[in-house]
Amino acid sequence: MPKTVAFFVIFLLILLPFQNVFALEGTERIELRNPRLVNAFGESVSQNINTHQQVRVQTDVTNKQNIPQNFAYIVQILNEDKVTLKLTWFAATLNPHQTLSLAISWVTDNPGTYTAEIYVWDSIKDAYALTPPIELKIIVS
Which CATH number fits domain 24-140: 1.10.10.10, 2.60.120.620, 1.10.3470.10, 2.70.50.60? Predict the structure, then answer.
């Protein structure tokens, strides 16, 4: 019995320093938070905007891994009928534990309630989610 306990303790001491070496799985790789509207200067604006007012849909994206992560940042703007009015994306790389505030510009001529759906995938081609999507409601008068 003492040999088994000693073996287990040695085993833990060897593996414990390596627990953060392995990549995170699935949607734990990236953190997507703080969706908001900002103006051209990066200043926050209300979610109630006017027609013809250009805004940016901005989100903070953080790589939670110890390795770089390629990603595609995707924003889809839907109207009240869930019809896609704008779909845009760009690809980049996040360094380990790096946070970026990413933004897509948008303007509309029509009043109404819109939804910005924000996704982070490994690429447009593979479409493997790195984080759960988030939404931002936008009211245009």
Answer: 2.70.50.60
